[in-house]
Design a protein that fits this description.
With 470 residues, the chain is mainly alpha-helical. It has a domain at 378-469: Orthogonal Bundle (Arc Repressor Mutant, subunit A). Helix content is 44%, strand content 10%. It has helices at residues 33-48, 67-80, 95-107, 118-130, 146-153, 203-212, 225-237, 268-273, 278-287, 300-306, 321-334, 337-345, 353-359, 384-392, 397-407, 413-424, 429-440, 448-469, and strands spanning 20-23, 52-57, 89-90, 111-114, 159-162, 170-175, 179-184, 192-194, 217-221, 244-248, 251-252, 317-318. The longest helix is centred in the last third of the chain and has 22 residues, at 448-469. The radius of gyration is 32 Å and the shape is elongated.
Length: 470
């Protein structure tokens, strides 16, 4: 590797005006809400500006990376509507460039072997703390000659560090939200970039991959700000292109702590299994920390039009599962019957389009359809609340209701209800509720006129007869 660029894969030195972002997960687990935010913001940024969005798997941790997680992450992205450009990329394919970059830095004296044991490092940290200094690496191995370092490496365990810490100088991180973020090198450590087992840490491969892949903008949490300083220094030292960063505020749980499974985080697979409409997650996540999006922006196209990275909040934001499910309910009510039917069929296999139209406005989640199963199966047992209504009905109520229904030529809800009222003397809830429960199996639901039209002559008779036979 030279200062001019990288010898492999033909990475161009020329600056490009096309925006290129990336989502670079490690395939070591399922996609969670933090991943969703990173992927979504990078996707929105690229699509808004007519650029490209790349998917790159950082799979250099061979002991933890698994092919099943690669496929799961792909499926989750597609389920959310976050398509990527070109084939998925793999960090492991850039292994040669990672080693080449390390060799180039070492040749310049900008990377060095460190032989300090963990015990020694802990003692050095304690000593620094006792003197009121930051618990930073002391830099003692930077003073080793190349000959001594090479000789010791033949028999001793070591890591590789970047020689960044210095009493003079600074590193400037170009950030679209924060302007130039300046780090004094005296405040930066000499970070480990290669572990004692020879594997790379996050810093170097991630930076080199961004250069190789032509990434122009990287959107990520502000907990990466210091990492960005190290990576800017590294890329500039190698004469490579540095992305513009967008460090947004962190995603927190509702308790203000870092979002985790305990504080409300979920895998996308879990949310999909729970019947969540994917656009509900996209809506809730896009609006989080982006307060200028209108409430009536219901489509992805609407979100893209409203999205502006410069308006993303720099402060931390709190996730709300309730808000996500509110969006789910709202979007559920906007689905037409053709789109709704597959969602409710998982709970009610006998559902049809007319059933979907009838109950659509009464659903908060797709599996709420289960409570209306009596509408498609006259013999479904009543729940405890509905059975209590039946038990409290006036004596002979259902016999009279059935006789009046079967003997009438007018099969509308209101004429029948009025006839039952006149014959039984029941009124109000004592009239209305027993009829609703008999036909629908629940105490709340669709308009009864629509229920009667849906069931028809035979359907109403079958449900009344079922109660009389039970």
């Amino acid at each position: 590797m030279t200062d001019k660029g990288m010898s492999e894969e033909g990475m161009s030195e020329e600056a490009t005006t096309e925006v290129v972002t990336r989502f670079a997960p490690s395939p070591t687990g399922l996609m969670h809400l933090g991943n969703v935010r990173t992927a979504l913001l990078n996707w929105l940024y690229a699509r808004k500006l007519g650029g490209r969005f790349l998917l790159r798997f950082e799979d250099t941790d061979a002991s933890r990376s698994e092919a099943e997680f690669v496929e799961a992450l792909k499926q989750d992205l597609l389920w959310l509507g976050l398509d990527w450009d070109g084939d998925a990329l793999f960090q492991s394919k850039h292994a040669g460039q990672h080693r080449e970059a390390l060799d180039a830095l070492a040749e310049k004296g900008l990377a060095y072997r460190c032989f300090c044991t963990e015990t020694q490092l802990n003692l050095d940290r304690k000593l620094a703390t006792s003197r009121g200094l930051p618990p930073r690496y002391s830099g003692k191995c930077r003073r080793l000659s190349n000959e001594e370092s090479l000789q010791r490496s033949e028999s001793e365990s070591f890591v590789w560090r970047l020689a960044i810490h210095n009493v003079n100088g600074e590193v400037r991180v170009s950030d679209a939200l924060r302007g130039n973020v300046v780090f004094a090198r005296r405040d930066l450590d000499d970070p480990v970039v290669v572990r004692s087992d020879g594997t790379f840490t996050f810093l170097l491969p991630n930076a080199i991959d961004d250069a190789v892949d032509g990434i122009t903008h990287a959107l990520r949490g502000d907990d990466h700000l210091t990492n960005s300083a190290y990576q800017v220094w590294l890329l500039e030292a190698l004469g490579l292109s540095v992305p513009t960063y967008v460090h947004h505020g962190l995603l927190l749980g509702e308790d203000g702590a870092k979002l985790s499974k305990r504080t409300g985080s979920h895998s996308v697979a879990e949310l999909r299994e729970d019947g969540l409409i994917p656009q509900a997650l996209v809506q809730a996540m896009t609006r989080l920390g982006h307060p200028n999006i209108a409430d009536d922006a219901l489509s992805t196209a609407d979100l893209l039009q409203a999205f502006d990275a410069e308006h993303i909040l720099r402060s931390s934001v709190k996730w709300s599962n309730d808000e996500m499910w509110r969006w789910h309910t709202r979007l559920l009510h906007h689905l037409d019957a053709d789109a709704l039917l597959p969602l409710i069929k998982t709970s009610v296999p006998a559902a049809n389009l007319d059933f979907a139209k009838l109950i659509a406005g009464n659903l908060e989640r797709a599996d709420d359809a289960l409570q209306y199963t009596r509408l498609v199966d006259a013999e479904v047992a009543l729940n405890e609340e509905a059975q209590a209504v039946v038990d409290a009905a006036a004596e002979g109520f259902y016999t009279t209701a059935l006789q009046l229904w079967q003997g009438s030529t007018d099969t509308g809800w209101k004429p029948w209800m009025n006839a039952v009222k006149e014959a039984t003397g029941c009124k109000g809830k004592n009239l209305f509720m027993p009829l609703r429960v008999a036909l629908t199996g629940v105490v709340h639901g669709p308009e009864m006129s629509a229920v009667v039209d849906f069931l028809g002559k035979e359907g109403v008779s079958a449900r009344l007869q079922d109660l009389l036979d039970s």
